[in-house]
User: Fold Thiamine-phosphate synthase from Moorella mulderi DSM 14980.
Amino acid sequence: MMAPWDLYVIITTNLGGGRPTLELVRQALAGGATAIQLREKDLPARELVELGREIRQLTRAAGATFIVNDRLDVALAVEADGVHIGQEDLPARVARELLGPGKILGVSTGTVLEARQAVADGADYLGVGSIYATRSKEDAGEPIGLAGLKAIRAAVTVPLVAIGGINSNNAAEVIAAGADGVAVVSAVIGAPDVAAAARELLAAVRRARH
Amino acid sequence: MMAPWDLYVIITTNLGGGRPTLELVRQALAGGATAIQLREKDLPARELVELGREIRQLTRAAGATFIVNDRLDVALAVEADGVHIGQEDLPARVARELLGPGKILGVSTGTVLEARQAVADGADYLGVGSIYATRSKEDAGEPIGLAGLKAIRAAVTVPLVAIGGINSNNAAEVIAAGADGVAVVSAVIGAPDVAAAARELLAAVRRARH
Assistant:
């Protein structure tokens, strides 16, 4: 299954300036987000399922990919397109087996070793970062920079979604370094105008590619 | 799939007096626990999988049932016998569908209405409580007492595992009120001698039944 990773917007409601989850999703989609990830570490599964069902409808209507972070069971329950796992979540190989072949598996990686392992375990795409310093994710570790991204690009062939401190000013160099798309949290959902921020970032990604 | 619910020990490591998870499990099984539930709300999925795999081996060797709380994906990943969900976890009907027919689905209930709904949604057994006041679960709500348990017993035919403030002094009246077994946290894993506490409680349950 292929997906366009140009602009991958991660929704974590408490980074959205007090706006409701579904409003953030609607605005991100209105601005052209090609993928939405629901990443809520502190919500009970029942709430995740309720939100996930709504986001499934919104993303389907917009032609966008919908990915659930960590909770593979919730991803299946809401018929998301796939699940994204970090290095502390389910082991990738286990996730691949539970998901079956028809769903997308994304894995967060920061090194060539992790990237190779994730692909061997069945990842369909990789989250790669942090590229730059970021405050959206406390446990993001030291930035790997464009050099780190290039090294992973040289090592694997699956799509790479770069993450960490990316905005419309630096998106071009990230794409030039080999990313297939950019993932953002605050740069879009923390912006005063979410749709406008998404639109600007998507334009920067597409300009960089052509 | 049937399981003996006589003594259902819930493992939440931080209620275990500083002892390691697997030591608590080993001691509970040594004392005769017939079912073990892993309930860790704050551990990453990767750690749950690692613990779950070990508990799967220990419970299999002891002939005990192994249930994972909330994380259906983890339950499947470690080949647990089933999953237990509360009213804030995955909806029971969704859990039933994702689990398939070969796994056990348990649902926490406190009223006849919830109990009937859970059975209609596919629950194989019900957790019923809190019977008495308890400090192990902050969100347990007002105790339903033996009267609440009897009402649920009269309403459904699936096995009932009573929970909440149960110990070897009151276990007999809980069984007499219609419970098929008792679930405990602190009464076993908080005891100075976990195996002895399990043994004493199991004996009380079995005496009450015969």
